Amino acid sequence: MPHTIRVWDLPTRLFHWSLATITVALVVTAKLGGNAMEWHLRLGYAMLALLAFRLVWGLVGGRWSRFASFACTPARLRRYLRGEGDGAVDSVGHTPLGALAVCTMLAALLLQVASGLTSDDEIAFAGPLARFVSGDTVGLASWYHKEVGQYLLYVLVALHLLAILFYALIRKRALIGPMLHGDKRLPMPAPSSRDDARSLVGAAAVLAACGALAWWLSNL
Ligand code: HEM
Question: Please, what is the average pLDDT of the chain?
């Protein structure tokens, strides 16, 4: 009999769909340019708050959202790729390969935000950290932000969507549903992620603190 397991708690699901929406909005506002850049900066701070939230939630959030549950060590990854992994554990949260993709995407998004904070277009817009570093560093950050980071993210998001499609069509594993309603139906029992009013209040407090950090940075 299949077991219904709460894998993604509500804060993780809200994080994911907000992250996807803000990523798209950041690209659109950057391409529009002009006055839309005001929104690009605001959305960048929102992205910073979200990413900071996920880093903290990776330590204190629901069981399957914690980094400890999807530690992508080379050994675990090798076993998984050879088909020798622990199928039961690997199918609950992120698979080792999925975990690697998630960590890479979060790191690339963090680097994109950090380089944005230190960029200067030498016309109208500069990140709040640009005046604290040397001209060379600003040049490097601006170059990375515009010429490298954005393309790296396009590739990572495209791989992410292709992987979801691969799992849906070839492996017959629907991953999108659980990211919407939180539950997976699995053939074996597994502990659920905590997902109650208390964890929601905790998540709201963490997000408020991360929002305050982003606000403080924006006012430097
Ligand atoms: C710019 C767009 C997107 C970005 C930056 C993004 C990023 C991410 C990240 C960081 C995670 C890990 C979630 C966590 O553990 O906190 C994730 C997971 C996931 N995303 Fe996305 N995502 C995007 C768009 C989408 C879209 C459009 C879909 C659906 C078609 C989707 C479906 C999923 C699913 C199903 C998972 C869970 C994968 C698993 O079970 O291991 N994502 N995404």
Answer: 93
